[in-house]
Amino acid sequence: SFEPPPPVVSVESDPDNPPWGAAVALLVWLGSIVLLAVVQVAAIVPYAVHKASTGATDTTQLANDPNFLLIGILAIIPAHLATFGLVWAVVTRFRKRPFWQSIGWGWPPRFGFWASVGAAVLLFIASAVITQFIPGGKTPFEEMLESSAATRFAAAFMAVATAPLVEELVYRGVLYPALRRAAGMAWAVVIVSVMFAAVHVAQYYNNLGVVASISLLSFALTYVRARTGRVLPCFIIHLVFNGVQVALLIVQYFYPDILSGATKTGLLAPAYVALLPLF
After folding, report:
1. Does residue 259 surpass a pLDDT of 60?
2. In this structure, what DSSP letter does residue 110 have?
3. Nearest to 104 by CA among 169, 52, 179
4. I need a labelling partner for 143 at 20 to 30 A (CA). Which of 3, 219, 228, 246 fits?
């Protein structure tokens, strides 16, 4: 006969002392990268095969195809959903532990919503200053966003709808506390910050300002997690930071003349930083 799954047991849990270890946390991190790659490849291969059957076999032509780029971005949605499922399975051990309590989803006593919003704004200002004074060329990601309006809006949607939540759960929710217990707070902050930034360095090496900005964001988010013991402030900072940049990208699309000066001086580079973790 069918038996319903056992109920979630409400137990006290310490987000800084998780029941999963560093090895499992690293596998979750690796799994998030593999899922993103596999799902995107599975999504774009059929289109590539279709284009090849019509005679469009040139790799450069395909890489600049707006539909090809759009499909790759839209594939991030199922990849993020699968990653969330992976995190849920590890954190709850398939409903044996409470999810949000175990992950550290809550407000600390002295760092609430408005403090998180303020931190996000300060990070944006710092990123704008960094990208203003550190030179860098146009990245492939910027060129991709300019390929079509659909691509730009799809990337913008992902930057606020799924990326902040999934990334904070993986890096600050699962990875950080396990490494903290294994190596201590200071090393955990350094390692997680570097891992978060390093995923994107290879793609944006030609723009040191963008690399510096994503590194600053990574360190700030991990430091907040270390000091507060909670993931929710990190999520709000990440969400607001991305949201401000996405708003600028949308304004730039509809009113290009208004932000033309900011584009030339590099002040819109933080907007691309907001979207970097998507890829």
Report:
1. no
2. T
3. 169
4. 219
